[in-house]
Structures are given as structure tokens and as C-alpha cells.
């Protein structure tokens, strides 16, 4: 039996030293967690990238108020901040609001992702440098087209990779007006349908499918328009659901409800692919394999295919916009909703690698447009 231990009280200086040690450990752990999640080599922030210094990635858990607070804090705590990058649709508007509030329009460049109307108006007004946009209308249209054919057991021409990439676009002041007009046509129900996977389909049999997003956002309104156009064309009834709070639990409840109401196929944008793998696999079984991912992939699941943007390459394009907006270099901060989501990991990795001037890996470069591929890159599977 050991004698009782004597507890020696810490003096004032020992307590201060202990607190500093704990604080240092917490900061270090947080940085390592963010860097690992970034999915671009596990960097530790800040990252020295030639003329640029990448300060970090700030997340907000899809809370718009918190997104704005993150932006305000970044401005207040980093006097040499030159560029702020928002990688989810609501991030650029929140960043712009913070920049305007700090009276730093023009001094801090705002670079965005997606086509929020505030972002586009900011580009038009010269307050946002540019944005890289996806084509959510095509996501919705293609999801209905391909799921309908899968339910009917019809043949599709899909790459061996099971990745169906939808091209992204870069929007600057010189083409923002044309792009806004395109969005107006989509909102008016006059969106242009993309080329079909097959010349003809037998659509005599009506199908019942579902399209699950990851939150409520204007971005998904364009996807819903694509769904509605495709419903008529492919004789499908497709339920669109936007989780009001953007939670995994909301997605889970919707998927489980669809499993028991006669739904024959599901297109899902998983908010946390790794932790939702079991749910996705159960859906694959329940829907007889008719389960696909869109916008955000779950590559370790049994989903049939992914429809959406090549998020790493889109992130590289965002990095190019940073270089254009701030050619002299400087401090850069990245903002996004959830690093658990694969698209956030891939986009942030693309931005970081572009600013570091890293070569694009050949297995990824094959998905670039033909005129942008390195000469040694083999042709890609194209759809």
C-alpha cells in the first residue's frame, strides 16, 4: 500500500505556465485537425505559398451568422489580409458584408464559389472579384434522367470511374451579365436541357424517385428547376427535399421515409460521407442499387455513381482567381461550411495547391478540358 500522495499547490507563475501549455496544445491540435480535413497533404497553417500566405480554413457548420462572424474576426485579427475565399454559396455574401462593414472594399479581395445573387451583384459592382460556379440545374436534370433509366433497367453509357462530371464556369465582371440572364431563364422554367446520355428512352412506365440536398440555399432552387424540367421529359415523379437545418439527422429521416413509401431511387448530396456510409449502403439495398450521389460524393459507399463538379479542379480555378485578384501576393483566408463534406475538402485542396503552384496530378488532369491538359496526360473518359 502506497502512502498518501501530498498535493503541492501551484504558485501563480506555475499556474500561468500550465495555462499557456494547455492553450498551446489546443491551438496546435485545432490546426492539425483543420489541416488534415483540408485534404491537401495535411498542411499546417499558416502555409507559405510563394507570394501568398494561407492563414487557415474557417468553418461555420452552415450557420450564416457564424460565417459572417468568422469573416469579421479574420479581418480584425489579420491586418495584412489581402484575399478572402468563400467555398460554399453563402460564404461570399457573408464575407462581402464583413468587408463592407470594415470599410475594406477594394483593399481585401473577395473570391467566391457558386452563384448567390449577392455574389453576382458584388461582381457587377466591382466589390467581388469573381466566382467559380457549378451547374446545379444540370445536377437536377441528370439525376432524374439517369435514375429513371436505372429504375427501368435501361442501358446507360457511364465511365468506368462512375464519375459523371458537370463542367464548371468562371464568372468575372466581363461575363456576369450574360450568366445572370441564364439564371433568369432557369428561374422562369426555361432552362436549357443538357445533352442526354442516350438518344432515346422508353418512358411509358412512370417512376417515383427522390432528390435530397444538404441544406436550404438558393443554389438548390436551380437544381430543383432541373428536376422539374426532367420530370416531364422522363415521366418521373421526383420529390425534392432540402433539410431545413442542414443536419445529418434530417437527411437520415428523409432517406428512411423514402425507403418505405414506394420510392424507387434516390439522388443524395451527403453532408458527411464517411459517417453516412452505412445509411447510403442501406439505401442502395432498399432501392435495388438505384442510389447515386450528387454535388458531394461518398466514394467509399456502394452508391452507383456521382454526378457533379470535379471539386478539386474547381478549387484550382478559384486559386487562379486569387492570383488574378492579388497578383502581388499577401495573406489569404479560406471559409467553408463543413470540412467533413468531401466537396469542401477537395475545393480547399485545389485552392491551396494552386497557390503553391503544385502540378495537377495526371490522374486528375485527364478531366481538364482538352486544351488545358498537360501534353503527357492521356485522354479522359468524357461524358
UniProtKB/TrEMBL annotation:
Xref: Pfam families: Peripla_BP_4 (PF13407)
Signal sequence annotation: 1-33
UniProt KW keywords: Signal
Record region (Disordered): 362-383
Top-rank taxon, per record: Bacteria
GO CC, alphabetical: outer membrane-bounded periplasmic space
Periplasmic binding protein domain span: 51-155, 213-359
Gene3D superfamilies: 3.40.50.2300
Subcellular location(s) of the protein: Cell envelope
InterPro entries registered for this protein in UniProt: Bact_Solute-Bind_Prot2, Peripla_BP_I, SBP_2_dom
Molecular function GO terms recorded: carbohydrate binding
Chain intervals with Basic and acidic residues compositional bias: 370-383
Main location: other
Membrane-spanning intervals of the chain: none
Family: Belongs to the bacterial solute-binding protein 2 family.
Full protein name: Sugar ABC transporter substrate-binding protein
